[in-house]
Amino acid sequence: MRRAEKAERIGVILDELYPEPPIPLDHVNPYTLLVAVALSAQTTDRKVNEVTPALFAAAATPEQMYELGADRILELIRQLGLAPTKARNVWTAAGQIVDAGGAVIPDRAFLESLAGVGRKTAGVVLSQAFGVPAFPVDTHIFRSAHRWGLSSGGTPDKVEADLERVFPRSTWNRRHLQIIYFGREYCPARRHLFEACPICSWAATKKAAAAAQRESQRG
């Protein structure tokens, strides 16, 4: 089966399972979404959602966040992994946004110029806050794309490019969320039963299926 044909069938399944996938990170505006996504690096969305209500109650705009200061930001996010670095980046980025006029600009180059913001974070903000078509790749999407044979890319950027080629542009914003939810619910990284998975059961590459079988035999 060609990649495009496989992607079309996968899309039908994902639309049936998650017709309107919600944004997993709690936020009140594009700026707080930007902060939440930046804080989610190497941390679960659930943990970020536990921490950000107090942070956003204290500062929900770049101006307020910059005035809060890096030390106070750190106090509010200390439970998160890499908290000291994240606190410095959030504070620095707030200052950069203030200097640029105080608003989060829906432009990839601008977003990626901010402290602590890489391609994935910028893509999430563009797609989820502004509706700009983007296909940011997280660990769930990277893993699924390889398992399903939609990409053999060794980097998130290469996987992103491959997925953008096989899925229609009009579906990107919901499709990347759908794959995240699917990965969490049906397609875990370890001890995954391929034959019981709604997608891996028929879409998995021989290499991925063989690796899963070897792992199950070891377990």
From TrEMBL:
Signal peptide: none annotated. Residues 39-185 form the HhH-GPD domain. SUPFAM superfamilies: DNA-glycosylase. Gene3D superfamilies: Helix-hairpin-Helix base-excision DNA repair enzymes (C-terminal), Hypothetical protein, domain 2. Its cofactor is [4Fe-4S] cluster. Keywords: 4Fe-4S, DNA damage, DNA repair, DNA-binding, Endonuclease, Glycosidase, Hydrolase, Iron, Iron-sulfur, Lyase, Metal-binding, Nuclease. Binds 1 [4Fe-4S] cluster. One of its GO terms (molecular function) is endonuclease activity. Pfam families: HhH-GPD. CDD domains: ENDO3c. It is an enzyme of class 4 (lyase). It catalyses: 2'-deoxyribonucleotide-(2'-deoxyribose 5'-phosphate)-2'-deoxyribonucleotide-DNA = a 3'-end 2'-deoxyribonucleotide-(2,3-dehydro-2,3-deoxyribose 5'-phosphate)-DNA + a 5'-end 5'-phospho-2'-deoxyribonucleoside-DNA + H(+). Its EC number is 4.2.99.18. Belongs to the Nth/MutY family. DNA repair enzyme that has both DNA N-glycosylase activity and AP-lyase activity. The DNA N-glycosylase activity releases various damaged pyrimidines from DNA by cleaving the N-glycosidic bond, leaving an AP (apurinic/apyrimidinic) site. The AP-lyase activity cleaves the phosphodiester bond 3' to the AP site by a beta-elimination, leaving a 3'-terminal unsaturated sugar and a product with a terminal 5'-phosphate. This is Endonuclease III. It comes from Skermania pinensis.
